[in-house]
Amino acid sequence: MAVPDSLAQRVFLLAYNPDKGRVSVGTSLGAMLRAAALADLYLNGHLIDERGHAAIGVRHPCRDPVLEALLEEIAGSKPRRWHFWVNCRQRVAVRAVRQQLSDGGWVRLQPHRVLGLFPTTKVTIRDPRVRKELLGRVNAALKKPIGRVHPADATLVVIVATAGLKLVLDRKTRRANKRRIQQLTELSGPIGPALDKAIQDAALGGEAG
Fold this sequence. Notes:
The protein has 209 residues and is of the alpha+beta class. The protein has ten helices and seven strands.
């Protein structure tokens, strides 16, 4: 089975822990998904950077309802810095991307109750080879010549590294590849710094601003 085209869907699959059968508690999933959606829009020219703010670029349909909704948010707002948009509507992003993965056949969703009381949704990856393929792309982006790394794969590495997703890149690996991750950050534009700032804001309980 092919991997999803959407960066947000790829991030969700990477954040999923197959041993635990869920995304681990404490993972900055919502922030990563919003950053991934912004990255898709930026890499495809729908968004451009104007003095540190996200601005509308090429305006044509995205063919992805999650991306189109985010683009409409930005188009209908005054100029905002990138990290503001990472911090917005994260729970909505998680539900929407999860549903996209289900609709596309990549995951199975099952209603579930924690301790028999609290409703939640159990997520199961249908084909583990898809996640393995994504892990392979992350590893390849750290090793192949920088000029041969696809910007989408570079951005995938930057998002999981910035969020400290140990399931994909543990601290030792991130430290050993610090220079390469910085090079990949330059390929991915404003997304890495925006995600980092958003996560810091969340940790401090600050405003997105």
